[in-house]
Amino acid sequence: MANAETKVVKLPRRTALKQTTLTETIFVEIRARLQRGEVGPKDRLLDYEIADEFDCTRMPVRQALLRLVNEGYLVGTTRGFVMPTLTTDDVHEIFEVRRLLEPSAAAGAAAALTDKQEAALKRAYQKARKAYDKSDSALMIEANIEFRDVWLGAVQNARLKATIQRFADHAQQVRLGTLSNPATQKIAVDGLRALLEGFTERDAKQIKSAMLEFILSAEQRYFALLNGQD
């Protein structure tokens, strides 16, 4: 009787976990710096400088930077990576996407919002109030990001959540250009208060209306200040 052939199953190669984790860590950190405005439109991100900072090779850094390029946060140049320059059409398109997605997503998140998340929304709002009282634009940006991240955490659709996160971040240049203005800060605080009231009451209709108004106000303030209006 002939011996049965032994079938060898070749397992797929697994990506090294250490490198994947490091790339993700660098991606999250650079994205956070972009969100907070620590990297501005005139700054250049150089892979070898970031590699020195993280004490690693340039490969995981480049992977993280290229991912940021693919998601629209950065563009590559002959000398490093920079934030994309937004035209007025770009800004209109970003806000159009936000108007289409965020009001419905926030309204849908109301039912899933936990007491812990509600408390986090209140803390973010209080931080925004403090930022307005002190005319602290950096703290105001931080408070806005925290507030958004909390309610996004209650959105059940992962793809929707990721898309909203990305397009809201793409409006970072708008925030940098407007939230240093006291009148804009007041509008932002009032908008967050209306949203917080809706989330506290779990009122989807109020949340949807408040979110749409919040986004429209941000867009209008950007173009008003761009045109020299205060």
From TrEMBL:
Keywords: DNA-binding, Transcription, Transcription regulation
InterPro entries: GntR_C (IPR011711), TF_FadR/GntR_C (IPR008920), Tscrpt_reg_HTH_GntR (IPR000524), WH-like_DNA-bd_sf (IPR036388), WH_DNA-bd_sf (IPR036390)
Keyword Transport in annotation: no
Listed name of the protein: HTH gntR-type domain-containing protein
A molecular-function term among this protein's GO annotations: DNA-binding transcription factor activity
Species per Swiss-Prot/TrEMBL record: Pandoraea thiooxydans
Cited PROSITE patterns: HTH_GNTR (PS50949)
The keyword Transcription regulation is annotated on this UniProt entry: yes
Segments forming domain HTH gntR-type: 20-86
TM regions (residue ranges): none
Highest taxon of source: Bacteria
